[in-house]
Amino acid sequence: MIVAYTAADVRTAEEPLLAAGVPLMDRAAFALAGVVVRELRARRGRVAGSRVVVLAGAGNNGGDALHAGALLARRGVAVLAVATAERLHETGLAALRSAGCSVVSVADGGPGARVWPGDAIAEAFTADVVLDGVLGIGARAGHSAVRGPGAEVLALLGELVADERAGGRGDGPCVVAVDVPSGVGVDDGDVPRPGGSNGSGSAPAGEPGAVLAADVTVTFGAPKPALLVPPACASAGRVEAVDLGLDLSGARPAVARLEPRDAAALWPVPPRAAHKYTRGVVGVVAGTPAYPGAAVLTVSAAVHAGVGMVRYLGSPGVTAAVVSHRPEVVAGDGRVQAWVLGPGVDPTDSAQAERVHGALAGVLAQELPAVVDAGALTLLPERLAPWVVLTPHAGELATLLSARGEDVDRAQVEAEPLRWARRARELTRATVLLKGATTLVVGPDDAVYAQADAPAWLATAGAGDVLAGLLGALLAGRAQDLAGEPSLVAALAACASLVHGRAAHVANPGGPVAALAVAEALPRTVAQLLAS
Ligand SMILES: NC(=O)C1=CN([C@@H]2O[C@H](COP(=O)(O)OP(=O)(O)OC[C@H]3O[C@@H](n4cnc5c(N)ncnc54)[C@H](O)[C@@H]3O)[C@@H](O)[C@H]2O)[C@H](O)CC1
Ligand SMILES: [K+]
């Protein structure tokens, strides 16, 4: 499991070490320089003779970058530091100068010659590596956007680099972010709005912000939430965490990301004496005559995920389609350990809406875990419970929140997904799984998971139905453990997201996938996870 800690927790953990004189910055800079050396070797086949531009802000983040620059210079790298502030970290600047490096400044009164931002950008764009040390965890929460001359350099260089990457020419620099890409909301993963004066706004998803997207982020002490949470995580590139020896045992992780071995540990593996009822029964209310396919996909995923039994509730026509595709399914009502409600359900179909309401009453009265998706998201009471997992995409979350008095649209959810997923949890008391390229899960006690396991090919019709069926199977399989452990629901939701993403890879590595193929890849995917 990868765990991220807030800026405040990392600072608190640094304090005793700094007070004891532990040279944390030297450790950070040494590790940072090591990553740059590896990148230079891999990309350019050499270290000495390469060119590195260090973008350095006023604080210790700039200090890390300057010290790393000095170490690189001693290995024959031509290092140019570009100051984005009037004053730079004192010992970092001294180290850089004594290693013979040049310093220029885009800030008035800064060290070295004053240069125009355009000249500094040209130097950076033609370098082999750019170190982004403008701003680290020192920005004020909610005001993370870089201010001053550094903002212009990062924004314009960011656009050039993005164009070059999109064109695939491969002649741009490798961008290494120091601790975090400068300007991201360190704790919330927000990305500042381009041109925003104080960083109070966020950039719409997909638009460039004043953030220089990194190829690699070298983060110190522990990963920060922005490196896992969208939209900022899209600017982090590969994340390399450097152990500084911080004791974070007293701090609560702010965000977690499950890895395959965590998913394997969470997966319900039947004991020898298992029978179908001990393995869990999933009840599915999905599909209407207009959307029968959603029902087939949902039950297929539940069956392939390895549940004891699937019960299906729907119209006779859809039931016939379901049973003809999945003969394992039992039609009609009966005792279940978990529900999946909503895929392909048209809320105006009164018979299906009534089944959803009936199931929900049992869910709340008997503490039965449930997945609520798609059409059923508009059929909910005001208050739910943590054992109910809502699985909206951004548009559905905006609708759900708007129905509860929040003034928010889809673009705002995409710009600040963690904030709005948290708000939905507060308002409904349910566990919220917000689907996206990085899926967020917010559960009891504000436990947050961020999973980025799926190929972009998985953005296809029916993929959500498969996730719902898969998660339903997982909840049914672990239903007995959920009673005493409400936080397990969020972990299982994150686990389902991981397995769903991996199943898409397994279904067709590197190429397009159909939702049903993802469901059919679940048995192999789970077997691989359990074997590894
Ligand atoms: N303490 C250590 O030995 C270690 C620190 N590490 C690195 O330090 C940074 C955090 O450093 P800090 O000095 O606290 O903050 P920053 O460098 O991120 O920036 C503060 C600096 O920037 C100015 N500033 C604040 N907000 C803005 C803004 N919105 N725009 C522009 N400039 C801004 C402010 O005036 C300050 O001067 C951490 O990220 C690590 O990289 C290492 O972990 C090693 C140990
Ligand atoms: K940085």
From TrEMBL:
GO biological process terms, alphabetically, are: metabolite repair; nicotinamide nucleotide metabolic process
Looking up Gene3D superfamilies in the UniProt record yields: 3.40.1190.20, YjeF N-terminal domain
The entry lists its GO molecular-function terms as:
ADP-dependent NAD(P)H-hydrate dehydratase activity; ATP binding; kinase activity; metal ion binding; NAD(P)HX epimerase activity
What EC number(s) are associated with this protein in UniProt? 4.2.1.136, 5.1.99.6
User: What keywords are assigned to this protein?
Assistant: ATP-binding, Isomerase, Kinase, Lyase, Metal-binding, Multifunctional enzyme, NAD, NADP, Nucleotide-binding, Potassium, Transferase
Q: Which cofactor does it need?
A: Mg(2+); K(+)
The segments labelled Disordered in the record are: 183-208
Q: Which residues cross the membrane?
A: none
**Domain annotation YjeF C-terminal: ranges:** 259-529
Question: Which Pfam families does the entry mention?
Answer: Carb_kinase, YjeF_N
> Which residues participate in AMP binding?
435-439, 464
The UniProt entry's sequence similarity note says: Belongs to the NnrD/CARKD family. In the C-terminal section; belongs to the NnrD/CARKD family.
Under which name does UniProt file this protein? Bifunctional NAD(P)H-hydrate repair enzyme
Q: Organism, per UniProt?
A: Cellulomonas cellasea
